Amino acid sequence: MTLNDTPRDIPIVRTIAELRQIVADWRREGLKIGFVPTMGALHQGHLSLVQTAAKHADKVVVSIFVNPTQFAPHEDFDAYPRTEASDAKALTGTPASLIYAPKPREMYADNHSTQITVEGISEGLCATTRPHFFGGVALVVAKLLLQCLPDVAVFGEKDYQQLLVIKRMVRDLNIPVDILSGPTQRDADGLATSSRNAYLTSDERKVAPLLHATLQDTAARLRAGEPVEGVLVSAIQKLKDAGFDPVDYLELRSAEDLTRLHSFQAPARLLVAARLGKTRLIDNIEV
Ligand code: AMP
Description:
Elements: E1 12-13, H1 16-28, E2 33-38, H2 44-56, E3 59-64, H3 84-92, E4 98-100, H4 104-107, H5 126-129, H6 133-148, E5 152-156, H7 160-172, E6 178-182, H8 202-207, H9 210-223, H10 228-241, E7 247-254, E8 268-276, E9 279-286
Parallel strand pairs: 1-4, 2-3, 2-5, 3-4, 5-6
Antiparallel strand pairs: 7-8, 8-9
């Protein structure tokens, strides 16, 4: 390996002021800014979003911030994997230009008191078992977008309800950014890549791909015209029989506004969340 083959280190900044300075300099040069917010423990899903951002921007900022406000007290905030050194290394193989990794104190003043509620679209599905979740996500994404002020920001379809919540919030608050989405990246056996897959035991990892397989099977039955209710009930039972407990939801929803569909009509999305051991897995596909 010659010196020129050495992957370049990507600069890391930890303050809003540094981030704004660098982005402002790029903007003065007439460059277009892309942004990919993450909670780190980067995997192929995140890296694919960086590639998508680079197709629409000259510079790509990746944020790494495990956001406390989207975790309830009993959830895995403390256990959530924090792997900044290997994340930084993984990003050297991508077009990322800058890592923004603020400390919680930089993000939230002790007496921060502003909340964001995106009504309707952030109710039901994941909000049923995680009522605090979309408020926390909307707040941190709004803050990150205002801190970075990118031209485009990219989010994964893996978190489909989250994607629609963010699109709605950005529209409603007139935040000047284009929200783009990237398709769900999967392991060879169909399991959607996720930072939380690291929690799965080896036995659970063998069962986990059934989540995606069940979505595919269910979608095929719906397309073939079988009644929605019966198809969903039998799919949920299949997941329970395989050891998913509880199955939080498996639902057919409008792909545009997430209203519940009682008969199949495109554009539709099939969404699922279920727990396997102590790991909560979510997935969704277009029908
Ligand atoms: P997270 O770090 O889990 O908060 O995710 C950061 C971004 O990566 C979000 O926009 C997610 O939707 C996206 N993402 C997570 N997993 C995947 C995946 N398997 N494929 C595509 N995007 C993903």
